[in-house]
Amino acid sequence: MKPAKNRISLRGLRTFCIVVQRGSFRLAAEELFLTPSAISHQVRGLENELEFKLFDRSGRDLRLTEAGNSLFQESWPLIAQLDEV
Fold it and tell me: Distances in Å between the alpha carbon of 18 and those of 5, 6, 78?
């Protein structure tokens, strides 16, 4: 996984983690009271910041890339901890 040059959006990172947890952009949107389109834009923005893809978007399946899986494994415990605060 390539390290980010600058700080990344905590909002985008949290959204990404919720998408992974829920398994869909639609379910993440429902949880965050946003539209699926807004969720997609936040994830794309995070991908642009990081300069790598988080999901393999071939077809209708939502699958994590290797980099996306690594990011999720490293960041989800921290995001969950922040949500508890």
Answer: 24, 22, 13
